[in-house]
Amino acid sequence: MGHPTVLVVDDDDDLRETMCAVLDDAGYATVAMPGGESAIEYLGRADPPDLIILDLMMPGIDGWRVREELRKLPRVADVPIVVATASRALARHPVDAAVILWKPFSARELLDAVARFSPTVSPADPALESAEVSRRALAPRPGEAILEARLDAAAVRRVYRAVAPVYDLWARLTESKARRRCLELARIRDGEAVLEVAVGTGLAFAAILAANPHGRNEGIDLTEEMLARAREKASRSGVASYRLAVGDARQLAYPDDSFDLLLTNYLFDLLPEEDFPAVLAEFRRVLRPGGRFVTANMTRAERWYQAAWETLYRVNPAWLGGCRGIRLQPALESAGFADVRRETVSQLGFPTEILYAVKPAAGV
Ligand SMILES: C[S@@+](CC[C@H](N)C(=O)[O-])C[C@H]1O[C@@H](n2cnc3c(N)ncnc32)[C@H](O)[C@@H]1O
């Protein structure tokens, strides 16, 4: 039996992530959505979760409307809903929920509410008994800042030349869930112009080709040895409309407004933080107005077992291919991307953040 899945819908990034961290630790699988729009969109296409935790006061589509919309989706109409709120408006505007969880609540209260519908599959950390789930619980702690990138471009090439033969094993063990989710979010329509930056061994590129056999498919990577493996996979796809070339994310050899979709996985987590603005500006330049950007990267550890990955990085960054946990959302927003959405996925304790954003249409 798989782990029970809980969908957490809350526009407060810190609170949402803390709730997911508490539930992940207790053995649930979590999916996080930052608002009503994304939650409804997700529930319209994904397998129904076992439980939904729903905030009420959210900009755009609020929790009350989400509840109404879910009633119209037969597949999810019966999924129990735990409303998590501080709203005093509940007396005037009641909502149909299995449980009301009043904010602020403790980790224990959260787990008890969820366990009424989906029993946990592993014991919760006893330290959670008294932990309050709140912004305060996530106040920046010393050492939480993004670690420094420790591989320069030459070292990146050297490391990936060496790991190319075994890369797919690592990538499948710790990153396959996130890669799949990126492709779902990308919603490729056949005939589009798609660029993947840092294609690596072509794990996502093969799926891009399958979804876009009649479109334009471009992939670049800094390391020829990684690209060689991507070429092998692409040549087995039976699709002819692709080009794979050595290239650097910092300077893309494409005109402005060239692509409908730009995808890049596990690239930013090995770039220096000071390079994020320039690389994002370059991505924005080559996307057409309205074009989509999807990216997955290792994110900052929130749980002790995730921190173990960063400990490895501190000892020898090459063991993690130069990747350390980052948070890209603020840089994306500063770079002028719109409709930015963030989700997190954890696989073998390896924490990944997935970001979806759009280049605003001309004139916006
Ligand atoms: C962790 S791997 C990710 C590969 C692939 N995206 C995946 O998800 O499997 C990082 C890749 O980024 C490439 N890379 C690193 N810096 C780059 C840059 N500045 N421009 C393009 N590719 C880069 C490396 O050569 C390597 O293949």
Structural overview:
By secondary structure, the chain is an alpha/beta fold. The chain folds into two domains: 5-138, Response regulator (Rossmann fold); 153-358, Rossmann fold (3-Layer(aba) Sandwich). The protein has helices spanning 13-25, 36-45, 63-71, 107-115, 153-163, 167-186, 203-211, 224-235, 276-286, 304-315, 329-334; strands at 5-9, 29-33, 51-55, 81-85, 99-102, 105-106, 132-133, 193-197, 216-221, 242-246, 259-265, 287-298, 338-347, 350-358. A seven-stranded mixed β-sheet has the order 10-9-8-11-12-14-13. Strands 2-1-3-4-5 form a five-stranded parallel β-sheet. Strand 8, helix 7 (203-211) and strand 9 (216-221) form a beta-alpha-beta unit. Helix 6 runs parallel beside helix 7. The longest helix is centred in the middle third of the chain and has 20 residues, at 167-186. S-adenosylmethionine binds at residues 156, 160, 171, 179, 197-200, 203-204, 220-223, 226, 248-250, 265-267, 270, 321, 323.
Helix tally equals 11
CATH topology type of the largest domain: Rossmann fold
Oligomer: single chain
* Major sheet summary line: 7 strands, mixed
The top-level CATH class of the largest domain is Alpha Beta
| Biggest sheet: strand arrangement | 10-9-8-11-12-14-13
Hetero groups in this structure are: S-adenosylmethionine
CATH level-two architecture of the largest domain: 3-Layer(aba) Sandwich
Low-confidence stretches: 121-132, 134-144
Give me the count of strands: 14
Listing every helix as H and every strand as E from the N terminus to the C terminus, the arrangement reads EHEHEHEEEHEHHEHEHEEHEHHEE
What is the helix content? Answer: 25-40%
| Fourth CATH level, the homologous superfamily of the largest domain | Vaccinia Virus protein VP39
- Cα gyration radius (Å): 21 Å
Q: Based on helices, strands and strand pairing, what is the structural class?
A: alpha/beta
Overall outline: globular
Count of the separate structural domains: 2
Query: For the residues shown, what is the average pLDDT?
Result: 87
Strand content range: 15-25%
Task: Please give the alpha-carbon distance between the first and last residues.
Answer: 47 Å
